[in-house]
Each structure stands twice: as structure tokens, then as C-alpha cells.
Amino acid sequence: MAMTPATLDVAAIKKDFPILDVEVHGGRLVYLDSASSSQKPQHVLDVMNEVYETTYANVHRGVYAIAEEATARMEAARAKVARFIGAPAPRELIFGKNVTEMINLVAHSWGRRNLHEGDVVLLTMMEHHANIVPWLMLREERGIELRWLDFDDDYQLDLSDLEQKLDGVKLVGLSAMSNVLGTLNPVRQIADAAHASGALVLVDAAQYVPHNATNVMELGVDFFGFTGHKLLGPTGVGCLWARAELLEAMPPFLGGGEMITDVRIDGFEPTELPWKFEAGTPPIAEIIGLGAAVDYLEHLGMDRVREHERELTAYALRTLTERHGDGIVIQGPKDPGDRGGVISFSYRGIHPHDVSQVLDERGICVRASHHCAKPLMRRLGVGATCRASIYVYNDAADIDALSDALAYTGEFFLGNTER
Amino acid sequence: MAMTPATLDVAAIKKDFPILDVEVHGGRLVYLDSASSSQKPQHVLDVMNEVYETTYANVHRGVYAIAEEATARMEAARAKVARFIGAPAPRELIFGKNVTEMINLVAHSWGRRNLHEGDVVLLTMMEHHANIVPWLMLREERGIELRWLDFDDDYQLDLSDLEQKLDGVKLVGLSAMSNVLGTLNPVRQIADAAHASGALVLVDAAQYVPHNATNVMELGVDFFGFTGHKLLGPTGVGCLWARAELLEAMPPFLGGGEMITDVRIDGFEPTELPWKFEAGTPPIAEIIGLGAAVDYLEHLGMDRVREHERELTAYALRTLTERHGDGIVIQGPKDPGDRGGVISFSYRGIHPHDVSQVLDERGICVRASHHCAKPLMRRLGVGATCRASIYVYNDAADIDALSDALAYTGEFFLGNTER
Amino acid sequence: MPGLEDLYREIILDHYRNPRNRGELAAPPAQRVEGYNPLCGDEIVVYLLVSDGEVNDVKITGQGCSISQSSASMMSAAVKGKTVDEARALIRAFKGMMSIHESRLEGEGDDAADQLLEEVKLGDLEALQGVVKFPVRIKCATLSWNTLAQGLDQAASA
Amino acid sequence: MPGLEDLYREIILDHYRNPRNRGELAAPPAQRVEGYNPLCGDEIVVYLLVSDGEVNDVKITGQGCSISQSSASMMSAAVKGKTVDEARALIRAFKGMMSIHESRLEGEGDDAADQLLEEVKLGDLEALQGVVKFPVRIKCATLSWNTLAQGLDQAASA
Ligand SMILES: Cc1ncc(COP(=O)(O)O)c(C=O)c1O
Ligand SMILES: Cc1ncc(COP(=O)(O)O)c(C=O)c1O
Questions:
Q1: Phi/psi zone of residue B27: left (φ > 0), alpha (ψ -120 to 50 degrees), beta?
Q2: β-strands A93-96, A238-242 pairing
Q3: I need a surface site. Which of A7, A313, B125, D12 has the fewest CB within 10 A?
Q4: Beta pairing partners, A123
């Protein structure tokens, strides 16, 4: 018998998320904006509260019991998150405030040491600003060149001329999954080609890690960033994994306490990994909270999470196109196997802001925005899209609610005809 | 009748902090390490939980109700914290992950634009690494000069040759209160002298804001950083206030979402204050939690907080020296009016690690460390000190417990004689 | 919690579905000014014919959400035929009505804005007052007004 | 929760109060190596007289906490008169006992260390095992051992 993962028990999962009990405008909350930020299960809140209520202290160096305990819990969370993404060693996992900071860390520390005028950084046309602006800043500062990988009619990266594109490239930066199109990119294939031509690979996995079983070694990448608040974790914590040799050769980024072994009035020595890149008091409770989020997800099983989302995405694509026909235009791959549960669309020419506003009246949360991907918006020829995105706590009823509310939105703005 | 602030009702306050009910090694927790990080009142935890449980969403641009509400709460917290420090406008208050990051922000963004080879940054010999290492990094990178203000026998800054010292100085960086000595520095006086000679002033107020009524305009400074976790707030949030003209003239620091108005494949435009300096998803719940901490402190009254700490510090200095005589050496100003409630000491030649370890057995938390101030440790001629530090939830009984446990520590290591 | 009816008053939807003064004017003699809301991608072009201190004609093109488009339409109807001074007073009053959130961030009091609101009659435009309850949408509502202000400056220096 | 008695065994306090092999050796012929724990400021100097593959004499100076000082004292007693190979095996075994926390951070398994522990007899040194329950203090306990290792390397290449 083939090992098919059983489906998630979404009804039970919904009960784990207190916010899903909230009433909005007199109805239930239908949260379809997890690509912006996920909701948090009670377990994550409980663990953070427990730390603050029973064993909170600043970490590292404290000799007393609650400081030892807080440190042990934070480092245990580091080990857990590292294992969760298949990292060979916890000391290769650096914490900061969000993935944006982590990509900036790479641009500042690795980039300023290794990129010089004329060096090329290859990005994709579906990057989030977090993986564009740091490189634009380096371009302004030292004249590196940015090059772009476009995508085809099914919103998949066009790799036909990848080898030429890689010429002169020192770093490839790509998102493992687009936060607008939902496209799951062929990270391994690109990483192999990049390495063959001598480039390193930075992956923005903000949308990938929350939804897919992850193994950085199998992906074969060099830098790998993701963010806690999209992963059922609290705000205020981001993660960067990188190979130890790379991190060891890089100069520190932020300077301050925790990241040194010695400071004199005329110089300092940075300390060992991971703390070398963690200046100042880390987000202690947040890291521990992220560890609890990982526990929760592992309890569900990441294969099941992916399978659930693939099925629900298939259901959504089918339902929305069957019901709304040409009225809805979905920007993203057709095959649910090629994509995650992020569905960008435009509806009957109604502006995304207006769509989202009317959906809100029905308790439905979708994002109407450029989704921090303006180059992509220009490439698509739109100013903004509506985006519905799913996670473990969503089910077919949520999709049906969206579909009904879209029909209502059409009536509201355009009058009574459904198409 | 003179307006003397009534003393705090510490017994009632202790009940607001769940962790103070915890048993350690079978006794009550005596937390005397608030200079490292403060404990959190139930109110702060409640507010953060409430956000996550009822109205959590990513901030900015979300059109739906819970996103509007989360944004409104975060921006209300910004306004509250700004008011708390007497800042004229909320948009002058930038949030990051800790004060270390905020000082690095100034060094990267203002420093790299305004400091060139040979320019001088004047620091004090009692700075925390957070206000040293970023400048050492700039020194390595572009050959700025660091100059140092020493202190006198009563651990007060020596300002006798301040004018000469200011010659060629572009920036003065000083902590408003030393995290080791407890010294309250004459910020206004130094700021006036600095401005008169054309230098700007950056204040590390990590130890000041939690314990003193603060008004940045009256202090007359330019950059002013502090950190949430020492201020009854959660981990993961730091603050920088600076005058709007300065912030507006500075280039952005981290690049990514939220901090732009436009991104093209060949450039970007940063957005307005404060978001220009807040790339990526901010620590949403943490900022709101910090707002709740400020509410709690304002409810107590910052004048009372200061008065309580002055009195308790006086009591501690008296008790410890009367009981332990020459056995205890306290590094810090004698007059409680000149200092905050941070008491560094060495005890009968016993190593601080050992002292702290034995105190822990009695449930007493003090820090044994260089306190991230190695240049100061070298200046004091010690490797480390023990540091007991107080806050609103400490009382005379906590000091008595410390004093008794010190006697026990002496017996434990040195045998039965008290001196 | 504010509801849809606070935002999408009938008169707003009417202006959205049947925008007034849609079209272009030859520039010159007219002023042509572009406005752009980077948050949502809304674009607007305002054409403005000013002579003898009076706004003789206004035309609007562009695309965007119902709030930005209806606000532009209402704006065009409100300032057409007014003196430049009256138009400027209207801009100040309208932005006063809208800027409660923004001015708080600046740390300014709202007194001046409140006073203006009492002096200038906004008429139909008051239908947009509900937008204030939806802070994200304020920039949609003010886009055409900021563009108009730029156009008036341009005309004055022409 | 581990208590004081886990850490400060009587034998440790004895070595702290009455350190063995305190003093200096003329260098050369002895090796002189400095060790430094930046976290707590502990300093140690190890003097090492090695000849014919044997550790003929060891002396220690420096200052630090009871754990670092007693560990140094015990170390000196344990390796004096041992062959260099025996001393190296002792270092590995001792660090194996101590490094549970550190090796986890490296992502390595603890199997090799466990095996070594069974083969090499640590004797008195096992009193330091309690330190493992106090991760912050591990670096205190290993300081003199790391310094010894450096000294042996230095002697080998001298
Ligand atoms: C004076 C001073 N500055 C800076 C810091 C650094 O604060 P954080 O670790 O929150 O960045 C501290 C506390 O550790 C401090 O006491
Ligand atoms: C693909 C991608 N990269 C980066 C980010 C930025 O994440 P954060 O705001 O947590 O830094 C996001 C989410 O906003 C994203 O979807």
C-alpha cells in the first residue's frame, strides 16, 4: 500500500486557533491572508506565557537558575528549528527580527566582502522586495549588476537560457515559492546550475518553509532565510541558515553585546557561531515561541500539511473558475502540484481594494496590494491584485465563503448580473 | 506642602508579576537582575495575548477589519511610547529588535554618510558594547578616530577637559546611565557642550528610560535609543528616537518591504518616516506589548518609580556596607542622588561567578559578568563584577535576602568568619 | 466596527459608476498633472484650465479604486467654476477632514483642521467622511486633491 | 533543578582552597601557555616540562573562579608523570564529559565521547561532572584543559 498521508482534521485544528472564534461584522472570521502572516495556535501563546511567567531572564552568561533555563530553552528551540529545516548543525542557524533583516545581513556581510563593481547578482522577476531592495542598495553603493530571470505563460521561471544568464554571476537570489503567484520554483535545479558556474545561492523561503517539508541539504543551497510570523510563530523573529564555512568567513553585521569575545578601546574579536551574528539581546520569547510552532507543525506532519494545501488549492482553483468563469483571472500556475496555496486574482475589473473591502464585510480577509513585489506587478501589468492564501486552518467552507462573497461584490459594484 | 511622590506599593506590584510567585530551589525568587532584563507584568502578557487571540494580522495596507485594528493598535503604541519620552512626533520614533540594532542603524545610516577618515567619535569609558562595537567597526572600515571620556574616583564622568576633548568631534555617544556603575550622567550639560562645538549627541538610554521620567527635548539630544525588554516590555523590540530632520536626511538602513514607495528593477524610493527605517514585518505584538508596559509604568508614575529606586538604593548601599564592611567593595557613586539602582560589587575576593552561583541557591538572581563593558572592566582592573539591580518590584526584604546570602557565600567558600 | 455603508455611500458609488468631467484638455493652455498612489497603484491625471484666478475647467483621467475615482469626480465637480482661493480652501478643508490619522502621526493638534471644516462647506464631499474610519483608504481619497494642489501651484507659476 | 552540592563537591573546594602545583617553571626549557576565558575574565598560565614523551612537571598560575582554578589544580595532578599520549587521552575524555552542551550545538552525536569516557579513568576529575548541569560554567572547567592541549602541541613542535 502506498503511503498516502491522511488529510488534516481541520475542524480540530481550527479549535487550536483562538482568533478563529472571533466574530467580524457579525459573522465568523474567514482568514485567507496567511501569506501575509499566519495566525498563532494556543500552544505557541501558552509556551511564551509560560516562559515569561516562570523562567524569564536574559540569556547567556547568567549563572542563576532561571537564566540557565531560559538559555537552555532558547538554544533547544534553535536546535529544533534547525532540525526542522534539515540543517546539519544548530550553530548554522542565526536569529534576527524577520527574514528581511536576514537577507540584509547576507547583503551587508557577505555581499560587501564578496561583491565588487561589475559582479552580477541574478534575481527572479517574482522576488519580494526583501530580496530586491538590499541588492539595489548594493548596486547604488558599489555598482554591482542585477540581472533578472523572467517566467513563462504558466508563471514558471524561464530557465531556457539559464546558463548564459549565469555568466559572471556571483549570487543567485530566488524565492522558493512566490508570495504572489504561488509558483514553487525548482530550487535544486537552479542551485546545481549556479554552483556549476561558480555562483552561490540565496533562497528566500519565507513562503516555503511554512508549507513544505524542508531539507536545506537536499535543496543544495548556501543561504536560506525564513520568517517566524508566517510559520505559526510570533512576530519579531526571523531565521537565516547558511553553511558554517560561509558564516565563519563573513565579517559580523551588527556590533554589540553577545557577538564578541573581547572588546578593547582599539578593537574587538567576534565570537563563534551562531552568536557572532546575534548582537544584543535576542528575541528570546519569540525564538522559544517559534520552537513551539515547529512542534505544532511537526505534530501535524509537514507532508500532510502540503497535501492538505495542495488539495484545498485544487478545490479553490476549480470552484472559483467554475463559478465565476471569465469574471475571475488567476495569476499563477494552473497545476496545484506546481504551486502553493497562494491565489492572486482580479475580479470583474473591480479594484482589489474595493473587492477586499466588500469581502471584509463578510468576515473574509484577503490582501489587496502589490504584495511587496512591484517589479512583478509591472511585469503582470497590474497595479495590485487580490490574494487569498491558505494554511492548515482553512477548509473548503472558507473557499466557498470567498466564492459567494465575490459574487456579492460583483452585485454591489456592478449591479445584479453574475458575469 | 511640598509635592513628594508617595512611595510605591511594592507588595501590590509584586502580585502583578507572575514570575515572582515562582519557587527556586525551594525558596522565593529574589530577582535582582533587572539591568539585564526586567520581568513582565501580567498586563503586558494579557495585552499581547489579546492581540493574537482577537485581532492579529500583518500591519499596513491590509483593508480588512483585523488588519486595520492591528495597525491602529501598533501605531497607537508608537504614539504612546513617543509621548512617554517626550518626543514631539510619533513619526520620529523608529522600532527595531533591540537598542543594539538601533545604535547600529545610526552608525550605518548616519555614520556612513557623515563620518570620514579622521573624524572623531567621543565615547565614555563606561559604555556598553552596544555603543562601542558599531563605532569600532566604522573605525576599521574608514579610519575614524575614537576618543574616550574617563571618570573620577566617585565614578562620575571627568568633564574638566571636555572642551578640548570635543575638538574635531562629530558625534558624542554616551549612556545616560551606566549599566555597571549606576552613574547617572549629565546628559544635558554634555549635549550643550557638544552642540556648541558642532557635534551631535547619541544617547544610549537603555538603563535610563525604564527608571526616570524622560523628556528628550529637555535632555537636548539628537539620537536616543532604548530597549523594550528592560522596560517591562517583551523581548524583540528596540526604539530609536531622533529629530525628524536628521532621520529625513539619512539614507535607509535595511531594505525590503514597508520601507519603500516604489521599487523598480533599477532603483527604489524610500517611503516617509517612520517606516523608512522599518524594513519588513515589524515586531507587531511586541510594540503593542511595549505600549502596555508604558501604560503600566505611567500608572505607577515615573517620578515615584525614581523615588522608590533612590530610596531602595540608599537602603542597599547602607545595609551592605554596614553589614559587610571592607568585605564588600562597591563600584559606583556614593550618593544615591547621583545614581540609579544598579550596584556592582566584589565580595571578599570570591569570584563573581561563585558568588552568583551560591546566591542562586538562595533564589537570588544577580549577574556575574563583564556586563558587556569590557573596556570599563579593564579600567576598573577587574575581570568581572557581581551586579545587583532593582526595579519597581523590589523592596528592602530583597536587599536583606541578598545581604544574608552574601554572608552565607563567605562561609561557604572561606569558612566561618564573617570578615 | 465601521461597516460598508459608512464607506460606500450611494453618492460615492454614483460618482464611481458615472464619473463627472471625465476626459482631457489640451495642455497647454491647460495644466496637466499626474498623481500616483504607490500603495495600491492608483493613477490619476488632472487637467486644469485656470485664468484670471478662476478654475474655468477641470478634466480627469486615470484608474483606481472606487474611492479614489469618486473622490476625483466629486473634486472636479466641486472646484469647477470656483476661484483659485476657494479651490485652495476646499483642498485644505477636505484634507483636514481626511487627515486625522496622518496629523496624529505628525504630533500636531487637529484644532486648525476642525476650524476649517466649520468654515468651508464641503457639500456632497462630506459623503467621503466615512473614509476616515478606514485609514488605509484615506490616501485613495486624497490622491486627486493632492494632484489638484500641485496643478494649482503649477498654474500660479506658469 | 541541580543544586550547589552538584557543583561544589568537597574535593573541588579542597583543590580551590589548596591548589596543587601552584607556581612557575623556567621557560625554556618548559613550555609556557596562557589561557583566557573572555566571558568571565578568568586567566590561567600553564607551565609544562615535557621530555621523552612524558610530562615531567606541570605548574599553574592565574586567577579565576573556583571551578576554573580547581579544574586546573586537578588537571595538573592528573597529568604530572603521565605520558603525552595518556595526557591527550585524558584531555579528550575530560572534554567529552564536559562538552555535551557544546557538541549538541555542533550537531555531532555524543557516542564517541561516551565511549572514551568508559575507557579512560578520570578518577577525582569525575567530581567535575556536575558542572555539565550548569552550562555557563563548562567553559570555566575546560579552560585549563584547552590550555594544556595547546602546551602539548607547542612541546611537540618545539
Ligand atoms: C547601557 C546599555 N546599552 C545597551 C544595552 C543593550 O541592550 P539590548 O541587548 O536590548 O540591545 C544594554 C543592555 O544589555 C545596556 O545596559
Ligand atoms: C517571499 C517573501 N519574502 C520575504 C518576506 C518578508 O518577510 P518579513 O516581513 O517577515 O521580513 C515575505 C513576506 O512578507 C515574503 O512573502
A1: beta
A2: antiparallel
A3: A7
A4: A148, A173
Separation CA B417–CA B353 (nearest Å): 21
Q: Which CATH number fits domain C2-157: 3.90.1010.10, 3.40.50.2300, 3.40.47.10, 3.40.630.30?
A: 3.90.1010.10
Ligand 1 pocket member B128 (CB < 6 A): yes
In angstroms, rounded to a whole number, what is the distance separating the alpha carbons of residues A157 and B107? 39
Q: In Å, how far is B223's CA from the nearest CA of chain C?
A: 18
Interacting residues of C25 by C-beta distance below 8 A, sequence separation 6+: C32, C47, C48, C49, C57, C59
Ligand 2 centroid distance, CA of A231 (Å): 11
- Sorted by sequence, the CB contacts under 8 Å of residue D27 that are 6+ apart come out as D47
Q: Where are the domains of chain C?
A: 2-157
Q: List Cα–Cα distances, B209 to A123, B77, B175, B395, in angstroms.
A: 43, 16, 11, 20
Q: Does C3 contact A358 at a Cβ distance shorter than 8 Å?
A: no
DSSP H/E element including C94 = helix C84-98
Burial label, B402 (beta-carbon count in 10 A; 0-12, 13-18, 19+): buried
- Pick the closest to residue D93 from D149, D135, D45 (CA basis): D149
Is domain B45-298 given the CATH code 3.40.640.10 in the classification? yes
Residues of chain A with CATH 3.90.1150.10: 10-40+302-414
CA C25 to the chain's CA centroid = 19
Mean per-residue pLDDT, A270-277: 95
Give yes or no for residue B367 CB within 6 A of ligand 1.
Answer: no
The alpha carbon of residue A209 and the mean position of all alpha carbons in its chain are separated, in whole angstroms, by 7
Is ligand 2 within 6 A of the CB of residue A98? yes
CATH number of B10-40+302-414: 3.90.1150.10
Gyration radius of chain A over CA positions: 22
Q: Which ligand is nearest to the CA of B367?
A: 1
Report the alpha-carbon distance of residue B402 to residue B183 in Å, rounded: 21
Residues of chain B with CATH 3.40.640.10: 45-298
Q: CA of B342 to nearest chain C CA: how many angstroms apart? A: 35
Closest CA to B372 of B381, B353, B385: B385
pLDDT at D146 over 90: yes
Answer whether A207 contacts ligand 2 (Cβ < 6 A). Answer: yes
Pairing of strands C31-37, B385-389: unpaired
Query: What are the chain B neighbours of C102 within 8 Å (beta carbons)?
Result: none
Q: Is the pTM of this model over 0.90?
A: yes
Find, among A160, A189, A184, the residue nearest to A172 by Cα. A189
Chain A residues within an 8 Å CB radius of B358? none
- Search chain B and give the residue with CA nearest C139: B61
Peptide bond just before A274 cis, omega within 30 deg: yes
Q: Is the dihedral of CA B170, B176, B182, B186 positive or negative?
A: positive
Mean pLDDT of chain A: 96
CA neighbor of A202 nearest in space, from A169, A179, A233, A231: A169
C-alpha cell at B376: 570599563
Q: What number of other Cβ atoms are within 10 A of residue A117's Cβ?
A: 8
pLDDT band at B3 (very low <50, low <70, confident <90, very high): very low
Catalytic positions of A, written as ranges: 372
Q: Do chains D and C touch (3 or more CB pairs under 8 A)?
A: no
C-alpha cell at B206: 537603555
Give how far Cα A12 sits from Cα of A8, A20, D139, Å.
9, 12, 47
